[in-house]
Specification:
heterodimer; A: about 350 residues; alpha/beta; Rossmann fold; Dihydrodipicolinate Reductase, domain 2; 3 domains; 6-stranded parallel sheet; 6-stranded mixed sheet; 12 helices; about 20% strand; globular; B: about 300 residues; 10-stranded mixed sheet; two-stranded antiparallel sheet; about 40% helix; about 25% strand
Chain lengths: ~350, ~300
């Protein structure tokens, strides 16, 4: 029997989730969409989907098994609360919340109601990360002592070829919970926690290159409590990037060598796209399942993580991403923001 | 006859830029009238990409212009640095991000969003129709207008984006994207209403195929002459550029001009710019999207929302 799912929010990421879900007909059925924007609701109508302005109506009127929460950060907690009250499992886009307290409350609610929630930290599913992780686990580079992570993109600023206004909530510290650190840095901290467990913050620096109300660049130095690995994490929003360019890398330095995602990432994105398209064409010809979005490289991980979530729900197996790990990520972010006295005031407690 | 001067310094800094701007003032507008009281400076601000990307006028040039104006006309002259909201760019962010808030605060000049405040609609008769343009009243009270464009190519349609096109940003209407199908007409119309008294083109960093520091400034007193030179420098035929052709047709500027640069650096500049064949870029982007959409339709793959838009 297929899962009955709903999607709360089909902005940029939510829309990608919707397109992904529509490619999983054997696994799920999209029962409805909750979306405030008329323009976005029209897109859902094009796919003959029922739409609601409010996620509460979606949850009340459809008998959902799962919901994808792809809302602005300040709306996530209430939506999670409403869904857990109805016993619905949740896939939530990162960051899990605006701060640790909010995240902890959400996790407590989920646990108390016996529902399940997974955070969409899709960078764990990037092909290059999967390869690095596998080789590291096999012991290919011995004991790792140092790690570097970089993720510099255009953040809230749109694609240079199709400039669009910034979403106001994205750069509002009250609504977003922070800037580049909680947005892109979240992925890097999550990867580090996944690789090396809980960490202490040795150093952090937040920059305001673009004079926004939130930071647009961050540099962190973390030390793993378990293994003493020291990691340097750089994230930023300040770069004018043109898709399919993707400025992301992880380097692990061990006692018998090093591993870099650069080794496993396509050097020429357009050539990669052609190769993947041909592979999918061949798969289609022999009746095999295609690799969705593999031609984009960047977006393939979004499909994979969602597919993994639904499979775990359907088969009743644990999620690959634990909520404890996500709480640790939020704890680290909160510690950094607190240190930098970002004038977050009482919004640590919103 | 209009005047055009090209200045270049490979190893430029704030001091050298100031010297270059002063030289342009001395050679292009050597007899500024002391009766000038209200001056508007129009830099080119592009989305949230600062001067280092080669998309936005460097505030250092505007800073030097302000210093020169005060030197020549006195400290009490009213100077306004202006820009309007655009389809994607809101000045409330752009002024901060691009460094203009700080510059105007430090220099004690007014920074004005032309989309705010009192506006007036002007009808402009062109060869091929009538155009209505919404303008901020401030522009109509200016005694002297300094046009400080960025030297670059506008991608869609592929036209030179320099002195003439920079004034498109004087139109108060925010969603100017609707005017793009008739871009050259709107550009001519606005240039008919508001005259550039002095043009200083920022070619310090030029964004061709990629951004490159070339340390170029062009000074002129006529937007058409200026854009003809700029167009040649960037490697395009000005007589195939719809904005320039339309402006000539509308009698906005002069085609005969006098070069004032002593070393004729024009030819050498041409080779320094990382050339971008914008038409080819657009065609290839268009073709890529077409092919991609065809692939997605045949194979049943997903097109990311970014590419759908």
């Amino acid at each position: 029997m297929s899962l009955k799912i709903g999607i709360a929010g089909i902005g940029h990421m939510g829309l990608l989730h919707l397109y992904s879900c529509l490619k999983m007909p054997n696994l799920l059925q999209v029962k409805g969409i909750a979306e405030k924007s008329t323009r976005n609701r029209k897109i859902a109508h094009q796919h003959h989907l029922k739409t609601y302005e409010d996620y509460k109506n979606l949850i009340d009127e459809e008998e959902l098994d799962c919901i994808i929460v792809s809302l602005p950060n300040y709306l996530k907690k209430d939506c999670v609360k409403y869904a857990t009250d109805k016993g619905i499992d949740i896939f939530i886009d990162k960051p899990i919340a605006r701060n640790y307290q909010e995240a902890e409350e959400m996790v407590r609610l989920v646990n108390r109601k016996g529902t399940r929630m997974m955070v969409g930290t899709n960078y764990r599913y990037h092909p290059s990360i999967e390869k690095v992780r596998k080789l590291w686990e096999e012991g290919r580079i011995g004991n790792v002592h140092l790690a570097n992570y970089e993720l510099i993109m255009n953040g809230p600023f749109s694609h240079p070829l199709t400039p669009k206004p910034i979403s106001e909530w994205y750069i509002d510290p009250l609504k977003a919970g922070g800037g580049a650190l909680i947005d892109l840095g979240y992925h890097l901290i999550d990867l580090n926690v996944w690789f090396f467990g809980k960490c202490d913050v040795l150093f952090s620096d937040l920059q305001h290159v673009l004079h926004l109300p939130v930071e647009d660049a961050s540099t962190l130095v973390l030390r793993s409590k378990k293994s003493d690995v020291v990691s340097v994490l750089n994230s930023g929003w300040f770069s004018k990037m043109i898709f399919p360019e993707f400025n992301f890398r992880v380097n692990l330095h061990g006692t018998s060598g090093f591993l870099s995602t650069d080794r496993f990432s396509p050097r020429y994105m357009r050539l990669h796209a052609v190769k993947e398209a041909l592979k999918n064409f061949a798969k289609k010809c022999i009746g095999k399942k295609i690799d969705y979005l593999s031609y984009t490289y960047y977006y393939s991980s979004f499909f994979k993580i969602l597919n993994d979530f639904f499979l775990a729900i359907k088969n009743g197996v644990p999620f690959s991403i634990s909520l404890d790990e996500e709480l640790e990520v939020m704890r680290i972010i909160d510690e950094i923001y607190s240190k930098h006295l970002i004038k977050r005031g009482n919004y640590l407690n919103v | 006859m209009s005047k055009v001067i090209i200045l270049n310094s490979d190893q430029y800094n704030e001091y050298i830029i100031d010297q270059m701007v002063t030289q342009i003032f001395n050679q292009i507008c050597d007899n500024l009238q002391s009766s000038i009281r209200n001056i508007v400076i129009k830099p080119n601000m592009m989305y949230y990409w600062d001067a280092s990307t080669g998309e936005t006028t460097d505030p250092i040039i505007v800073s030097s212009i302000i210093d020169n104006l005060r030197r020549i006309l006195g400290e009490d002259v009213n100077i306004y640095v202006v820009e309007s909201d655009a389809s994607a760019m809101e000045t409330k962010y752009a002024f901060k991000i691009l460094g203009y808030n700080e510059l105007c605060k430090n220099k004690g000049v007014k920074l004005v969003n032309l989309s705010d405040g009192e506006t007036i609609t002007k009808k402009v008769k062109l060869d091929n129709g009538l155009i209505n343009i919404k303008l901020n009243k401030l522009l109509l009270s200016a005694d002297f207008v300094i046009n400080v464009p960025k030297l670059k190519i506008h991608r869609e349609p592929p036209v030179i984006s320099c002195a003439l096109k920079n004034f498109f940003g004087l139109i108060s209407t925010r969603f100017k994207y609707q005017y793009h199908p008739k871009l050259s007409m709107y550009v001519s119309a606005i240039n008919k209403i508001i005259k550039s008294n002095l043009i200083i083109v920022d070619g310090l960093i030029v964004n061709g195929k990629y951004p490159k520091k070339i340390g170029l400034l062009i000074g002129a007193n006529d937007p058409v002459s200026c854009d003809i030179i700029a167009s040649k420098i960037i490697g395009r035929n000005p007589m195939k550029d719809s904005i320039i052709i339309n402006a000539i047709k509308e009698g906005i500027g002069k085609v005969d001009f006098q070069f004032l640069d002593p070393d004729s650096i024009y030819d050498t500049m041409k080779n320094k710019i990382p050339q971008l064949n914008s038409i080819m870029t657009n065609i290839s982007w268009f073709m890529q999207l077409k092919l991609l959409k065809m692939y997605v339709r045949i194979i049943g793959d997903i097109l990311p929302p970014l590419l759908v838009e």
